[in-house]
Amino acid sequence: MAWFRRSGKKSDEPKEGLDAAVTEAVIEPVTASKPDWSPPAEKLLEVKNVERIFHVGSRELHVLKGIHMELGWEQLVMLRGRSGSGKTTLLNLIGGLDKPTRGEIYFQGQPFHEWNDDERTVARRKDIGFIFQSYALLPLLSAYENVELSLRMSGTPRSEWKGRITHCLELVGLGKRMHHRPFELSGGEQQRVAIAKAIAHRPKLILADEPTAELDSQMGAQVMSVFRDIIESEHITICMTTHDPTIMEVADHVYQMVDGRFVS
After folding, report:
1. In the prediction, which pLDDT does 257 show?
2. Structural domains in the chain?
3. Residue 155: is its pLDDT beyond 90?
4. Which ranges of 73-177 would DSSP assign to H, the alpha helix?
5. Residue 103: φ, ψ to 5°
6. Which of 194, 186, 212, 201 is nearest to 80 (CA)?
7. pTM for the whole structure
8. DSSP notation for 191-241
């Protein structure tokens, strides 16, 4: 499966407003249409004996210590643990934002750990979506425009934007709020915009870092319900970090992390 492709084709001529605001961000997107989803035989992701060591001054900080895990198709998987247990570091490795010091990571059977920065960037644009604790929405753009930005970055054909954006926002229950800006939305609504943005380009894997941490229990439950709906309807696997025991029951699998290791 070839993921990385350099393109010599220039992006469309920028226009005023949103077009002008994102011109700098749209650099050689992958423009091929995404094929219909069908689950291959291999695991979506495999992590084999992964270690991550950071050098702090003259000493080594051993954050991950031999991690083994698998992600299947259409699953909700949680990484549970206290702050400093290594959850976010592992999430960054799975998403290609960092590389392991030792060990192997295979994404759809491909050696993700061997790819260079450009190859991993294209993989993130095409097949991985991110949801952050802070929502990561652009404050001057509406919910619709924030989701549109995701499609621009992935190189989705312009003719597909309107239908896909509307579908994603309706899927998370914001069909009537799509033209509101983030400051006009509640925290739960902003998180749902972030979810719509993450799924818009039809990724196979969503990585969510403490997506319910800033929400009350009711809003958190609503977000988890949205997660279950999009796993079924969009055929997406979600891997998220959390330390909230109240949402564990909706997971297909929970990995408990303590000091850089999984414990039973």
Report:
1. 94
2. 41-136+204-263 (3.40.50.300)
3. no
4. 87-94, 117-127, 143-154, 161-171
5. 100, 180
6. 212
7. 0.81
8. HHHHHHHHHTT--SEEEEESTTTTS-HHHHHHHHHHHHHHHHHH--EEEEE
